[in-house]
Design goal:
With 168 residues, the chain is mostly helical. It has one domain (2-157). Helices cover 73% and strands 0% of the residues. The protein is built from nine helices and no strands. Helix 3 (44-57) packs across helix 6 (87-103) and helix 6 crosses helix 7. It is globular. The chain starts with a helix and ends in an 11-residue tail after the last helix.
């Protein structure tokens, strides 16, 4: 898993133009990415949906193009969520936060779960967040144990049950 995580991180950092970063630079990048994300995505639901999707998407140590494409399609269908930010900005933030989580997995996961937990008092929001995470699970046409484990953590953060996807 660590080799796949490393390869996935290298692919993202090369895509983002961040080759050969030191650990300190990676952590600084992750912090800056989260700060930009938090300041630009002010809606709690949008932040929770994006965070949940990314947590599942990077659970296997990789961020597949099919996962990015499914996310962009999903967000494009939610015009009210993306209108203040714009779909192009959402796409960039998605890649940025995916890279930030892979750069600093512990802090990134913790921060994402805090954003997800922020919506737990609203059952409708919880359902949207869970649905987004489920889309990420099936986006690359495979359901991995690591993705299921992350689904459990996401649902636990919102105090809701994990649904059985039944092999999608």
């Amino acid at each position: 898993m660590y080799v796949r995580r490393f390869r996935g991180y290298i692919a993202i950092t090369e895509f983002m133009g961040k080759k050969n970063m030191s650990h300190e630079e990676e952590v600084a990048y992750a912090i800056a990415s989260w700060q930009r994300f938090d300041s630009q995505v002010t809606d709690d639901l949008a932040r929770a949906v994006i965070s949940a999707f990314i947590l599942v998407a990077v659970a296997d140590g990789d961020l597949a193009q099919s996962e990015i494409d499914k996310f962009i399609l999903m967000m494009g269908a939610q015009e009210d969520l993306v209108a203040p930010i714009g779909i192009d900005r959402i796409r960039l933030l998605f890649r940025d936060i995916g890279s930030a989580i892979m750069s600093d997995p512990i802090a990134g996961r913790e921060h994402a779960l805090e954003l997800i937990a922020a919506v737990k008092s609203n059952a409708s929001y919880c359902e949207l967040v869970r649905s987004a995470a489920e889309i990420a699970v099936i986006a690359d046409n495979r359901e991995l144990a690591s993705e299921q484990a992350v689904m459990g953590v996401i649902c636990s953060a919102m105090d809701i049950e994990v649904r059985d996807l039944g092999g999608h």
